[in-house]
Each structure stands twice: as C-alpha cells, then as structure tokens.
Automatic annotation (TrEMBL), chain B:
This is Oligopeptide ABC transporter permease. Its main location: membrane. It comes from Ruminiclostridium cellobioparum subsp. termitidis CT1112. It is a multi-pass membrane protein. It holds the Pfam family OppC_N. SUPFAM superfamilies: MetI-like (SSF161098). Residues 104-293 form the ABC transmembrane type-1 domain. The chain crosses the membrane at residues 43-64, 106-127, 139-161, 167-186, 217-236, 275-293. It is found in: Cell membrane.
C-alpha cells in the first residue's frame, strides 16, 4: 500500500510540473510587449522600470527558475492589472465562496443521487424507477447553465433571491442565496450518481451472497445495510473524482450566472482581462486541487477495495 | 416368428450426407443481429431520426435560407417569433432561426470531430499499448495518466490564450485530451483478447503486429468503441457549450448553441425565446445522443442490459 501511495504521489508531482511548465511557457512566449498593453503608450523609462520589476529584462528560462522557486515558497505572484494585489490574497479571498458552493453541491448531489439510485433499483420497473431514469437522462442532457437560467426564471424572484452570495461569514450565513446555485450545480451529479447506483445495486442483488444472507434469515433492512450498500458503493468512488472536477469547472458558469464572487468567476475575468500572472496562479491552483482530489480518490479506492491495490502492484 | 428388419428400413428418407452441412437460413452476422435488436428499440430509432433531422437542418437550412445569419437589422431587434422571423430576432436584429442552425453546425462539428480524433488515436494507442505490453505498455500508460490529470477546461484555456479564442483552439485542445478514456478502454479489451487462439494462429501465419491489431483485435472491440463514442459526442458538445457560454469558445460573427444561450441568458427576463431555442436545441441533441447510446449499448452488448 505504501508503494502504491508513493507511486501516485510521484505521478502527481510529474503532472503538476508539466502543467506549471506548460502554463509558464505558453504565457511567457506570447508575442508582444507585456508591459505596453495599456491604451496609452508608456514612456520608455517607465516601461523599462516595469520590465525590471516584472523580470522581463531577464531571459525566459531565468524567469522560469525564479517562478518555480517562488511557487515552492508558496508565492503565486502578483497581478499585472491591479498593482499590489497578490494571487495569494485573491485565492484566500475568493476560494471560500467557490468551496462552499462546491461542497454543498457535492454533498447534496451525492446524497440525493445515491438515494434515488437505491430506490430505483429496489422498485425496478415501476413508475418510481422510470421517473429516476428520466431524471438521470435529463440531468446529463441539460447543460447546467440552461438549468440555472430556468431555476432563476421559475423559482427565483418571489421565493428565493436570484443572484448574490453572502459576503460576511461566508461559510454559514445567507443560506437562501445558496439554494439555487447548489441545485443547478448538483443536478448533473444527481443524474450520474443515481444512474450508476441503480446499476450497481442491481448487480449486487444478483450475487450469491445476497441469497446466502436471505437464507440465513437476515431481515431486509440488515441485508440492505450490511451487504447491498457496502458493495454497491465501491464503483461509485471511481466516478466521484471526475464528478468533483465537473463541479469545479461547472462553477465557472454557475458563479457567473448567479453572480457569486468565487474563484471560478475571477478566473474567467482574469482570462478576459489577460492578466497573465493571475491566470497562471489560478490555473495552477485549480489543477492542483483537481489532481489532488483524483489521487486521494484513487488511494481511498485502494483502501476500500483491495483488489485494485493488488492489480496495481502487479502491473 | 421374428420379423426381419433390413438395414434399409433404418435410413432416413430425404437425407443426403452431402447437404448436411448446408446452411438453410441466411447467415446472421453480429452487425445484422445488433441492427435487428436496435430496430426493435423504438426510443433509439426515434433518437436516430431526430438526430438525422437536426443534422440535415444544420446542413441545409443555412444554405437554402435567403437570410444571412450575420445580417443585422437594428430596426428589428428582439422580435417575438412570427411569420417573418420564425424564431424571432436577437438584440442585434439577427434571425434566430438561421443562427440556430449555423450554431448547430459548430456544436455538432465539435462533437463529431472530437469523436473522430478520440476514435482514431485512442483505439490505435490503446491497441498498441495493450498488444505489446511490457515496457511499451508501461510508458504509454504513464503518459496517459499524466494527460488524464490535466483538466480539459485548463487545456482549452491555455491553448486559447496562446492561439487566440475560437474554433481552432477548441479543436486543438480537444485533440490533446479527448482520446485518453478510449485508449484505456481499448487497452483493457485488447489485454483480454490477445490471449485468444485466433491471435496465436495469426501470429503463427506470420502476420505483423500492426495487422493483428487492426484486423483481429480492434474489430472485436468495436462494440465498446462505438458505445463509448456515442456517449462522448454529447460530452464534447457540452464542453463547447460551456466554453462558449463563458466567452472562451466560438467568437462572433460565428456562433454556436452555447454562445447563443449565453446571449439569450442576458435577455432572459424580457425575451425568453432568445434563450429557449438554443437551450432546447442543445438539450434535445444531447438527449437523443444519450438515448441512442443507451440503445446501441443494449443492441451491441445484450449482456450489459439491466
């Protein structure tokens, strides 16, 4: 197991390094003078000072080494458009809103999706089952921005606020503001989870050990809790990581529609404003977050299902 | 008195040894069988027809219509759907009906292109990796693992920053990331299949590895590949719609369903039709692709049916 974790962490470092390097060189080899991007041409002396400040007087490889060194010390750089604003401050400032939306969406999506999937599997070929299947197919077919707009139009306004996000006490206050975004962000994962869970439960129910459990005289509840649930949850973990990534990238859109001051919205803003240090910082942050979650899921999967670990070591 | 039974009495009448092996009924191949099953599935057939209609409309309507999809008319902005403009006009007075089908071209093109790239590259990559095994497999799968770790959106954003926003960047990013899932899937299939006797027979007859992969292994994984591709197409269209929605995808004057929905969303409270039509178009196309994928999976691999 230790070797497996080490191997995964090794890939993590390589992937991270590739992303950082690719991001850095893509941003730093763009044509044009990065200092003279404003509408007014700066005087040469000012431009020269700025070049020295941003390190553009040094060759690109030299800057790369400095950038890597800064990253290792946890310094993500400083905005070129808003002097004095560091990327670290932005991430500290904006990430909680995104994280809350993400956590709520993941929890809600997972809970509702799993419950729907289990119910559908047990009530197979009834109207409940068909309803769940319909939700599952609609959920992967309707983009979240369409659903978000629909929610704003139908539910929002009179009952719930359409846009906005609590600005003080980011984690706990203003729950009514978070309901619609959470619904919109989690709809896709509800669909995926319920679909997978239904298949998984049906597969488990066909196994001989369920028959054994029944023959032993266990109650229906005990069979479900001890045998069906535990075994059917295993495949769900594999789709959990991609789902998480989906929620992170989905947040670019959801945050924009609901005017949530999160990191996803800032990311899109910084791309449209071509604020290169900030684009690099947020790209690296998002990728790191994404990759870490995948690696954690893989390790967790290895702990829960020993078969994965064994085959992982053999190969 | 025992009756004499002669040998002739025991011969079957109308039985000819020479035609014993003749096949009376027409031979049903795997694909014919699958098509037969698919034909019975009303939902899948309905999806197929709908997709064909959408596809043909995207190709034909912009050609046949006299209205230019970029043509603006400031005097006729935000018109409700009517006889002159069937789906109304947008904020610049452009005809939504024609734009919808032009946008569909981009959306479907992205979906199909991503599918083709992942199909060709992913199957070959997975096939080679699975067939050779050993060190080659190790190296190739490590590369895949690294690429899988990079989120698709990040790749698109990086490519579009360095090459400029628009269709080419989307397509390049798609080419970089789309094939990994299929490569893994095909590799797994090939690992199982290559132990079969027909592969050994082919090897013994002196077939080259490429021939074995292309002629024997990949055709046997076709059902998995087709089903996976059908489900991937809506995924690519989704990604395009997302990116165009946040302004990183297709740039004006070109349009796509995602870009149209983004514009429509801003006008939603007063002119809901501007959001409605692109939204319905995306959802309907995704839905039919997903339903068709379900049908194909059931038809090609009846074991999987739940």
């Amino acid at each position: 197991m230790g070797r497996y974790i080490l191997k995964r962490l090794g890939y993590l470092l390589v992937t991270m390094w590739i992303i950082i390097t690719a991001t850095f060189f893509l941003m730093n080899t763009l044509p044009g003078d990065p200092v003279q991007t404003g509408t007014k041409l700066l005087p040469e002396a000012v431009a020269q000072n700025l070049r020295v400040k941003w390190g553009f007087d040094k060759p690109v490889t030299h800057r790369y080494v400095i950038y890597l060194n800064n990253l290792l010390h946890g310094d993500f750089g400083e905005s070129m458009k808003t002097p004095g604003l560091t990327a670290n401050a932005i991430i500290r400032d904006k990430f909680p809103a995104s994280a809350r939306l993400g956590l709520q969406a993941i929890t809600f999506g997972l809970l509702v999706g799993l419950i729907l999937g289990i119910i559908a599997a047990f009530k197979r070929n009834t109207w409940i089952d068909y309803t769940v299947i319909f939700i599952a197919i609609a959920g992967i077919s309707i983009p979240s921005f369409v659903l978000a707009a629909l929610l704003q139009k139908v539910i929002g306004g009179s009952l719930l606020p359409i846009i906005g996000w609590p600005s003080t006490n980011v984690w706990l206050s203003g729950f009514e503001y978070t309901i619609l975004p959470t619904l919109a962000a989690s709809f896709g994962s509800i669909a995926t989870y319920s679909r997978f869970m239904r298949t998984s439960v049906l597969e488990v129910l066909n196994n001989d050990y369920i028959l054994t459990a029944k023959a032993k005289g266990l109650s229906r509840r005990e069979i479900v809790q001890k045998h069906v649930l535990r075994n059917s949850l295993i495949p769900i973990i594999t789709i959990f990581a991609p789902q998480m990534a989906g929620i992170v990238t989905g947040s670019f859109v959801i945050e924009r529609i609901f005017c949530i001051p999160g990191l996803g919205m800032y990311y899109v803003e910084s791309i449209n404003g071509r604020d290169f240090p900030m684009i690099m910082a947020t790209t690296i942050f998002f990728s790191f977050f994404f990759i870490i979650s995948i690696v954690l899921m893989d390790i967790l999967y290895g702990i829960i299902d020993p078969r994965v670990r064994v085959s992982g070591e053999k190969r | 008195m025992i009756k004499e039974y002669e040998q002739e009495l025991f011969e079957v009448v109308g039985y000819d040894k020479e035609v014993a092996d003749a096949i009376v009924r027409p031979n049903i191949t795997y694909w014919k069988d699958a098509w037969r099953r698919l034909r019975k599935n009303k939902v899948a057939i309905f999806s197929m027809v709908t997709l064909l209609v959408i596809g043909l409309s995207c190709i034909l309507i912009p050609i046949l219509s006299r209205v230019d999809y970029t043509g603006q008319n400031v005097a006729m902005t935000h018109l409700k759907p009517g006889s002159q403009h069937w789906f109304g006009t947008d904020e610049l007075g452009r005809d939504v009906f024609v734009r919808l089908w032009m946008g569909g071209r981009v959306s479907i093109l992205i979906g199909l292109l991503g599918a083709v790239v992942s199909l060709v590259f992913g199957t070959l990559y997975g096939g080679i990796s699975g067939y050779f095994g050993g060190l080659i497999d190790d190296i190739m799968m490590r590369i895949v693992e690294v690429i899988v770790g990079i989120p698709y959106m990040i790749v698109v954003i990086l490519v579009s920053i360095s090459l400029g926003k628009g269709l080419p960047s989307l397509i390049i990013a798609l080419c970089i990331t789309s094939w990994t899932g299929l490569a893994r899937l095909v590799r797994g299939q090939v690992l199982q299949l290559k132990e079969n006797e027909y592969v050994l027979a082919s090897k013994a007859l002196g077939a080259s590895p490429m021939r074995i992969i292309l002629k024997h292994l990949l055709p046997n994984t076709m059902s998995v590949i087709i089903v996976n591709t059908t489900f991937q197409i809506p995924g690519f269209m989704f990604a395009e719609a997302f990116l165009s929605f946040i302004g990183l995808g297709v740039q004006p004057p070109y349009t796509s369903w995602g870009a149209m929905a983004a514009l429509g969303q801003q006008q939603m409270s007063y002119y809901p039709h501007e959001l409605l039509f692109p939204a319905v178009a995306i959802s309907l196309t995704m839905l039919t692709f997903n339903l068709l994928g379900d049908g194909l999976r059931d038809a090609l691999d009846p074991k999987l049916r739940q």
